[in-house]
Design goal:
With about 450 residues, the protein is α/β, with parallel strands linked by helices. The chain has two domains: about 260 residues, Purple Acid Phosphatase, chain A, domain 2 (4-Layer Sandwich), CATH 3.60.21.10; about 120 residues, no CATH class. It is about 45% helix and about 15% strand. It is built from 16 helices and 18 strands. A six-stranded mixed beta sheet has the order 5-9-10-14-16-15. A five-stranded mixed beta sheet has the order 8-7-6-17-18, covered by helices on one side. The protein has a three-stranded mixed beta sheet with strand order 11-13-12. Bound molecules: manganese (II) ion. The site of manganese (II) ion has 7 residues, from loops. Manganese (II) ion (MN) binds next to loops.
């Protein structure tokens, strides 16, 4: 017989509920990465002091690295992982992990996926313990502006605290901006911009801050190859990036000139979800792809999407593809099950009350000979009606908060057709006007309007 206290899928263990302390993770002052991985895999969390210790120790390693790293092969290069911890684990299972294998990550560790904090703490633990086997660059999502409107800030607040979030941001400010691999590849998260001429220009940037809205720092994080990169020739070198509403598109010719000027083969970047996890663009005169996009978050757009890791052994560059792994389920926007289902439950209960009290009509109430019990019933009914109204308001608020989250995740995707914008307005217009006081929705409204300005 089934009891409500039984676990429905008994083969899956309960998530760990105890939090690890500094002493559990740091044995004799040395961080235990494998313990951390296994613990996070079972959904364990650290106490605040321990999380902050890892973040600060990582910042103290990262801040002494130059803006432009020099990384020797063999090395595995990964693109966006976006909070998909269980997929990152499958990369380590398939390709090995530090210190046996060296990694260069091109940023966008957090947002969208629900395990960003686990990724950040694990990668930083590797950075602390094996600083020359784990190289981490900054992506456009390693910023306050993005994590506030997408999901990482909320994730930190749910699993840890605002302090841990703030500390993450300070550590993100220390991440280097680019890497030259084997003297032939320039690796960045986004791309190149009009003010970047030589590699040494990158080292002149002051990086210990929130990502700025323009300039080379911004372009390294945000730029994209032009939409018709492989076909359009004799176009401007750089054009304003209307898909991102920030930074530039760079053309094939601009990229080739940059590579030649700096004696490089290929620009390797992440930042765009591409089919199969990697995409090679039009080749240079030397016969190498001018740009290579690498994306390491599988099932990002649709469930069947593969992702990839680039393996470079100094002679050969190969792409290892992989597909999505199962992961624990979270309700949208980290909502808890009680507040998520409450509006529904309350609605159903008030419907039951309605049905019970249906026999009392208003004409009966007006009847002077009405029994005293019926008058009480009428009073009760009007109370339930009030209750019902409050309930539907609660349900609407929940729907609004879901919509805000959806809109947040749309705020930086490509709006390529005017119908997309019309749909957005139809779907979210009411939500935004309902939440006019919410700072987050004000910001999203601004984004939506900017999108509108472009197309209307
Ligand atoms: Mn990105």
């Amino acid at each position: 017989m089934f009891r409500t206290t039984d676990r429905i899928v008994s083969s899956i263990p309960y998530p760990i509920t105890t939090r690890l302390h500094i002493d559990d993770i740091y044995r004799n002052g040395i961080i235990d990465c494998n313990l951390l991985i296994n613990f996070f895999y079972d959904e364990g969390r650290l106490d605040e002091e321990c999380a902050i210790r890892i973040l600060r120790d990582a910042a103290n390693v990262l801040r002494f690295e130059p803006n432009l790293l020099r990384v020797d092969p063999p090395v595995n290069i990964c693109g966006d992982v976006h909070g998909q911890f269980y997929d990152l684990i499958s990369i380590f299972k398939g390709c090995g992990k530090p210190p046996d294998v060296k990694y260069l990550f091109l940023g966008d560790y957090v947002d969208r996926g629900y395990f960003g904090i686990e990724i950040v703490l694990m990668l930083f633990a590797f950075k602390i313990k094996f600083p020359h086997s784990m190289y981490l660059l900054r992506g456009n999502h390693e910023s306050r502006a993005m994590t506030e409107i997408i999901s990482f800030m909320r994730e930190c607040e749910v699993k840890y605290s605002k302090n841990v979030y703030d500390e993450c941001m300070l550590t993100f400010d220390c991440l280097p901006l680019a890497a030259v691999v084997g003297n032939v590849f320039l690796c960045v998260h986004g791309g190149i911009g009009p003010h970047l001429k030589f590699l040494h220009d990158i080292n002149r940037i002051y990086r210990f801050m929130e990502i700025p809205d323009d300039g080379t720092f911004c372009d390294l994080m945000w730029a994209d190859p032009w939409r018709r990169y492989n076909v359009d020739m004799n176009i401007p070198d750089f054009m304003y990036n209307v898909d991102r509403n920030i930074s530039f598109y760079f053309s094939y010719e601009a990229c080739c000139r940059f590579l030649e000027r700096n004696n490089l083969l290929t620009l390797i970047r992440a930042h765009s979800a591409v089919a199969g996890g990697y995409k090679a663009y039009r080749v240079t005169k030397k016969g190498a792809p001018s740009v290579l996009t690498i994306f390491s978050a599988p099932a990002y757009v649709s469930d069947s999407d593969a992702a990839a890791v680039l393996e470079f052994d100094s002679k050969k560059l190969t792409a290892a593809q992989f597909t999505v792994s199962p992961q624990p389920y979270y309700l949208p926007n980290f909502e808890n099950a009680i507040s998520y289902t409450l509006p529904f439950v309350v609605l159903k209960i008030s419907e039951i009350f309605y049905a019970i009290l249906k026999y009392v009509t208003s004409s009966e109430v007006d009847n002077e000979e009405l029994l005293i019990e019926d008058r009480n019933a009428y009073a009760l009914r009007s109370k339930i009606q009030d209750f019902g109204r409050a309930t539907s308001r609660l349900a609407r608020q929940t729907a609004n908060s879901m919509n805000l989250m959806k809109l947040g995740s749309l705020a930086n995707v490509n709006y390529s057709r005017i119908s997309d914008f019309n749909n957005l307005q139809a779907e979210f217009g009411e939500t935004l006007s309902n939440c006019a006081d919410d700072a987050r929705s004000a910001r999203l409204l601004e984004t939506l309007n900017q999108v509108g300005e472009r197309w209307i």
